[in-house]
């Protein structure tokens, strides 16, 4: 009788261990990162933990490549995000004192091949000022100012959200378009987003002491 009880306890314990191991593996694995192959037209978010100035959103160009400071041009199309992480990490390693921690994630999946011809433009916009990740961004139009600010991590706590504006150049003239982030964030009636154009500069000023 005692032997039977011990055998039953051993079987139950073994099942629990197997289930726990399977659950842990399922929680820690990233099926998309392991399986998904990057395609031309995908938007990638590249982050380097040790130096946020390298953080940027990048478009996989028609030749399947992306370009990064210190790394140069690398082939992205056909690689999994995890494989591309290792490629970028290898390129950055000689320039870092410690091992660089690189993360590559998908911020936008490219349209299906049948829809690629419908993509109107691949453009560059610039986001400067008090956002979490200022810099130059490659985007597939149409993109709104709100979407672009989200790519840059949004205004930080020191931003004057009510004084954000977009500078748009056409020939020798420059137009300044006010963009009231507060009004949109608060859902105010009549608040409008702005559709961006190639070369637009989003300026996010720092708020003063009393505003």
Question: What does this protein structure show overall?
Answer:
The protein is built from 5 helices and 10 strands. It is α+β, with helices and mostly antiparallel strands and 211 residues long. The strands form 3 sheets. It has a 5-stranded mixed sheet, with helices on one face. A 3-stranded antiparallel sheet has the order 2-1-5. It has a two-stranded antiparallel ribbon with strand order 3-4.
How does the major sheet shape up?
5 strands, mixed
End-to-end gap: 79 Å
Structural class: alpha+beta
The total strand number stands at: 10
The helix-strand sequence is HHEEEEHEEEHEEHE
Helix content: 25-40%
Main β-sheet, spatial strand arrangement = 7-6-10-8-9
As a whole number of angstroms, the C-alpha radius of gyration is: 24 Å
Q: Low-confidence runs (pLDDT<50, min 5 residues)?
A: 5-33
């Amino acid at each position: 009788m005692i032997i039977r009880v011990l055998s039953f306890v051993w079987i139950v314990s073994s099942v629990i261990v197997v289930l726990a191991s399977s659950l842990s593996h399922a929680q820690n694995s990233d099926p998309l990162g392991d399986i998904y192959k990057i395609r031309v037209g995908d938007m990638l978010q590249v982050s380097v933990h040790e130096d946020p100035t390298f953080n940027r959103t990048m478009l996989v160009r028609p030749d399947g490549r992306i370009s990064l400071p210190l790394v140069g041009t690398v082939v992205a199309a056909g690689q999994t995000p995890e494989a591309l992480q290792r490629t970028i990490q290898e390129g950055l390693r000689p320039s870092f004192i410690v091992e660089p921690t690189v993360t590559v994630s998908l911020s936008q999946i490219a349209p299906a091949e049948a829809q690629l011809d419908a993509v109107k433009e691949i453009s560059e916009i610039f986001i400067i000022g008090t956002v979490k990740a200022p810099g130059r961004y490659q985007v597939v139009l149409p993109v709104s100012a709100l979407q672009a600010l989200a790519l840059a991590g949004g205004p930080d706590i020191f931003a004057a959200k009510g004084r954000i504006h977009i500078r748009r150049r056409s020939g020798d003239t420059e137009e300044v378009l006010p963009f009231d982030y507060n009004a949109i964030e608060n859902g105010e009636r009549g608040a409008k987003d702005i559709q961006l154009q190639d070369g637009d500069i989003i300026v996010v000023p720092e708020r003063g002491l009393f505003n």
